[in-house]
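Supplementary Methods S3. Complex input for the HQG-bound model.
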Amino acid sequence: MMSQREKSVSQKQISKFLSLVLRHEPQAAGITLDEHGWANIADLIAGVSKKMPIDRNILEQIVAEDNKQRYAFDETKTKIRANQGHSVQVDVELQEYIPPNPLYHGTAVRFAQAIEKQGLLPQSRLYVHLSKDSETAKEVGARHGKPCIYEIDTKRMVADGYVFYLSANGVWLTKCVPPQYFINK
Ligand code: HQG
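Predicted complex, serialized as C-alpha cells:
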C-alpha cells in the first residue's frame, strides 16, 4: 500500500507533467492539441502512461483535486485542456472582462530593473499573469526568488484600450503592462 504522502507526491509529479504537456510540450507525450488547446483524453492517457502511472481515475482525481484548478474537461469528457498558462499558440476561448482595480503581479526582485524599463512582458507564455490579491502575487513571485509585487492601475489601462481576460480558473491575463501603469513606482 502506498502511503498518503507517497500517493500525493507521485500525483504531483504526474500533474507537473500534465502541465508541461497541456501548456508547453504536447510532443513530450506524443500528442497534439487542437486549436482550442484540447487534448484527446484517450491519447493523453496512452502517451503519459509510457512514462508515469496514469489511468482515467487518476486523471479525474488530479483534475478534481488540483489546488489551482489548472485543468478542465469538455462537456463530453473526451477532451481535456489547461485553463491558462500556455506557451503554445492555442485559443482557450478566454472571456474578456473589466478587471478589478488594482491587479497585482508577483515577480522576483532580480527582474525588477528590466521590468521597470520594459514593463511586464509575457516572456515564454501567451499572456502576463495577474491576480486580484497581493498574497497570491507574492506566492507567484516567490517561485522565482525573493518576491516583489507590482500593483497595476487597470482602470487606466482599460481607459487606454487594453484588454483583460479572466481564465476559467480565476487568473487575470493581459498581453503586456507598460511601466507607466505601475502604481507607486
Ligand atoms: C518576469 C503559475 C524581465 C515575470 C503562477 C515572471 C502563474 C520579466 C517571469 C503562472 C519581464 C515569467 C505564471 C521583463 C515579466 N523583464 N522579466 N520585462 N516581464 N517578467 O512563470 O507570472 O502553478 O512565465 O515577472 O501561479 O511567474 O504554473 O510567469 O517572473 O499564474 O499553474 O518573467 O504560473 O501557475 O515567469 O507565472 P512565468 P509567472 P502554475
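The mean pLDDT is 95. Residues 68, 70, 85, 107-108, 111, 114-115, 118, 120-121, 123-125, 129, 140, 143-144, 171 surround HQG (CB under 6 Å).
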